[in-house]
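Escalated from tier 1: protoporphyrin IX containing FE holo job.
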Amino acid sequence: MSSADPQIISVRPQMTAEIMARTGLDEDKLTELVHRFYDKVRTDAVLGPIFAARITDWGPHLERMVDFWSSVALMTGRYHGAPVPAHVGLPVDWDHFERWLVLFRETAAETCPPEGAAHVIERAERIARSLHMAVEDAKPRTIPSLL
Ligand code: HEM
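Tier 2 regenerated the structure:
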């Protein structure tokens, strides 16, 4: 696929084309990854109830998440949201992020070629660590008394 291919809608078409060629990823694979991943999340005993308490209309969330992964994995610039505030205040600790990553790694292996799976997993792990830090930083702290 060349960078002039009209199917690639990206703010950096050449870079996006290069990543697609290197990883075997494309919009269809990312769409399948996102949909299958959230199918698992929604029925997961640990994560399901946390999402169910906040998301009633899954259509817009899934669309946003496909845009997010298109931006993160293919550098298309399609996502314009703010992930940190969406997670600050959630009742989660590292065990929840680890469970999220277990399901994500599993789904990536099912839906992407090996190079593509490694590409999205590496990014998911990095973002999970930084979201976890933001969530922990925002938790109210009890300062131990020195008296
Ligand atoms: C403990 C694990 C996680 C939980 C429980 C969780 C939960 C949620 C929930 C409930 C929302 C919807 C918030 C709302 O619309 O009010 C959301 C949004 C989102 N999540 Fe997560 N999430 C987790 C981990 C992650 C990770 C690891 C990533 C990225 C790799 C991620 C990326 C996003 C993005 C991009 C949004 C959309 C933010 C926006 O633009 O509004 N999440 N998440």
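The chain has one domain: 19-138.
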